[in-house]
Amino acid sequence: MKILRIGTRESQLAVWQATLVQTLLKNAGVSSELVFIKSEGDIDTVTPLYELGVQGVFTKTLDAALLNDRVDIAVHSMKDVPTQLAKGIRQASVLKRASYKDIFVYKDPADLERLGYANGKWSMMNSASPTNSALTSDDLPFTIGTSSIRRIAQWLNRYPGHRIENLRGNVNTRLRKVAESNWNGAVFAAAGVERIELRPQNSVDLDWMLPAPAQGAIMVVCREDDSFSFEACQPFNDEATALCAKIERDFLRTLMGGCSTPISALATTSNGSVTFKGNIISPDGKQKVEIEKACATSDAGTLGILAANELLSEPSGAKIVQDIRNAKK
């Protein structure tokens, strides 16, 4: 009987995700084993992700192992997967999505009020609001940790003048760095900390922050010519999650193509329809263009592309995209 080799990174979260896939395969009557692969993103935990200059920093080593027949399938956090899969690799399954939200892990509860959070809700805020103006003064420095250019852009758009510190490493390492720092807090993906039961009590959902495309979803990939592995993963493919993730990734690919960009997207399904929200923000947070669209689920196949092209048709949207492309040259 064939034993599927599951390629995974060595972090606690990656192993949790791969073990989940192993359990799902077992439930489908397929035997498997884990094969641990160290990625470039795990080796270099100092350089900000957006400075590494490559797509798929957490996935390309696993993809290489897959193409070299060292493993049969690879398990990825879908938000880390380039919108264009490597030649010879195909999507085998997308698991049901967990939380797509970002969370803020804070040090001092008083900081939440300074940020406009009270009674379990975030206030409507813009750069001209009194609270926000106070937060940008030299008398009240506010520092958060994150290495995500998307989170940086959205945070600075809401809180101009705040200081951003680079925060790299696996979930455990980043939580420790925050605890040992003199920062006010840091931003994490809810799914990442919740899956391995490490979400701190001193954290709140960032309901105002749009997620990365496909955040909270897990993707399993296999070789294009491996029908056995593909079929083995089909029983746990969640069609609604796969559709929403496709829409979000189409939006990203049409705008810029890469995953280290200040682009956010969220598609949700309800009662036979799909609602999509997306935005692109200049890396300094000063310019923002957003879009919202809805359609029937049966017509949603090209929704992400249509939304991106509509955003690009606006001069402000096209300018942000062009400025980012010029900065990358």
Automatic annotation (TrEMBL):
Pathways involved: Porphyrin-containing compound metabolism; protoporphyrin-IX biosynthesis; coproporphyrinogen-III from 5-aminolevulinate: step 2/4
Assembly and binders: Monomer.
Annotated Gene3D superfamilies: Periplasmic binding protein-like II, Porphobilinogen deaminase, C-terminal domain
A single GO cellular-component term on record: cytoplasm
Domain Porphobilinogen deaminase N-terminal: 4-227
Listed name of the protein: Porphobilinogen deaminase
Pfam families in alphabetical order: Porphobil_deam, Porphobil_deamC
Root EC class: transferase
EC number: 2.5.1.61
Keywords: Porphyrin biosynthesis, Transferase
GO biological process, one term: heme biosynthetic process
Keyword 4Fe-4S: no
Family named by the database record: Belongs to the HMBS family.
Cited function: Tetrapolymerization of the monopyrrole PBG into the hydroxymethylbilane pre-uroporphyrinogen in several discrete steps.
Record-linked SUPFAM superfamilies: Periplasmic binding protein-like II, Porphobilinogen deaminase (hydroxymethylbilane synthase), C-terminal domain
An annotated Gene Ontology molecular function: hydroxymethylbilane synthase activity
Keyword Transferase: yes
